[in-house]
Amino acid sequence: MTIQNRYDFVLFFDVKDGNPNGDPDAGNLPRIDPETGHGLVTDVCLKRKVRNYVQLDKELSQGYDIFVKEKAILNNLIDEAHEQENVKAKEKGEKTEAARQFMCGKYFDVRTFGAVMSTGKNAGQVRGPVQLTFARSVDQIVPLEHSITRMAVATPAEAEKQDGDNRTMGRKFTVPYALYRCHGFISAPLAAQTGFSEEDLELFWQSLVNMFEHDRSAARGQMSARKLIVFKHDSKMGNAPAHHLFDLVSAEASETPVRSFDQYDICVPTQENMPTGVTVVEKL
After folding, report:
1. Closest CA relative to residue 197, chosen from 4, 68, 56
2. Which of 175, 130, 215, 207 has its CA nearest to residue 40?
3. Alpha-carbon span 3 to 109, nearest angstrom
4. pTM score
5. Angle, alpha carbons 135-19-39 (nearest 5°)
6. Nearest 10 degrees: CA dihedral of 26, 28, 31, 33?
7. What span, in angstroms and rounded, lies between the C-alpha atoms of 174 and 24?
8. Mean pLDDT of 134-140
9. The predicted structure's pLDDT at residue 162
10. How far apart are alpha carbons 127 and 115 in whole angstroms?
11. Is the per-residue pLDDT at 79 higher than 80?
12. Residue 184: phi, psi to the nearest 5?
């Protein structure tokens, strides 16, 4: 059964001594708002982590395959939809819609985030019910640059250039500590179009809570999901504007410089403070 309620949510996550989302156009420096100094993590980065978690958890089982995954050739996957018997049997004008429905049913990320699938034999476009904003750090960040040394070379030619000294130098960028805040939106009417179900919703919440647990790397340092605050509306269309609900959540540092989550006070609204028809739930 597809979801019958609108949801809005706030996700807090942090990074310690790592680079949460490097910018390839800036030498892989942590992304930053140059006018305010606040750090940024793209929505694409967060969706990637959700996809990776679902892929590990469900092992690409029926209905939980991932469309945008590493080394995927998207047009081949779109063409596969047109090879299905129920799609082939359709009239020319109905094939695209039938292929779109097949893709929504097979791929978790298509029915969750949507996809443009008109690059191959055309499976249409899907507007996903789940959308995320860029995550922005609560406070300014200070990107640090570190020199690192490798005690080996890759080729004999490199060894000759080093005159017998196999050490090579490199650079690594980190953020000492930052707490990031992301906003999200889930539309019940759009969920009805893609088949996004209550089971899919629970898997999505699970992914947000655990996505960093299986995404460890030396470059990203220590990253953790810290708070997931969900606003559930009583209706499909919603009972209050999302920005009014987000304004009820605040994060303030008790001291500076901040080097741990314990130094933040997160204000989560109580149910008594909620607009009529909206329930607040702390998933984390």
Report:
1. 4
2. 175
3. 16
4. 0.92
5. 35
6. -20
7. 15
8. 97
9. 61
10. 7
11. yes
12. -140, 160
